[in-house]
Amino acid sequence: MAERRHRILVAKPGLDGHDRGAKIIARALRDGGFEVIYTGLHQTPEMIAETAVQEDVDGIGLSILSGAHMTLFPQLLKELEKRGAGEVVVFGGGIVPDSDIEELKKMGVKAVFTPGESTENIVEWVRANVADAA
């Protein structure tokens, strides 16, 4: 029986319509050996959590450029807990001030990547932190 590839959900919550970065990360993760599901634009935290449960993912990467990261990340974590999926590793990226990154980590977000981070570093982080956690 073939080994199951780790599954990563790449999601774009909120009203932000810029998904180029999310698509680049999705492709980098796919090329890095992960099975990737991309939700598309304008997803709610409830929709993302429900998709994560249905798709049995190991990790969720959120792309947030709208400045709503302090609202959307906690809502997603809460929705995952409600569905008994609190063990899913949540990470993300976007325009997030350094001061908010530490607060998000305290809430349970495992990593936040900001503009300029290499896709290789993100894939390696996922490999080390999501694949090992699953």
How would you describe this protein?
With 134 residues, the chain is an alpha/beta fold. Helices cover 43% and strands 18% of the residues. It has five helices and five strands. It has helices at 20-31, 45-55, 69-82, 98-107, 119-129; strands spanning 7-11, 35-38, 59-64, 89-94, 111-113. Strands 2-1-3-4-5 form a five-stranded parallel sheet, sandwiched between helices. α1 crosses α5. The longest helix has 14 residues, at 69-82. The chain starts with 6 loop residues before the first strand and ends in a 5-residue tail after the last helix.
Tertiary shape = globular
Put simply, the count of helices is 5
Helical residues, percent: 40-55%
Low-confidence stretches: none
Number of DSSP strand runs:
5
Return the string of H and E elements. EHEHEHEHEH
Assess the beta-strand content as a share of residues: 15-25%
Distance between the termini: 18 Å
Mean pLDDT: 93
Rg over alpha carbons: 13 Å
Q: In terms of structural class, how would the helical and strand content be classed? A: alpha/beta
Q: Main sheet: which strands, in order across?
A: 2-1-3-4-5
- Describe the main β-sheet briefly: 5 strands, parallel
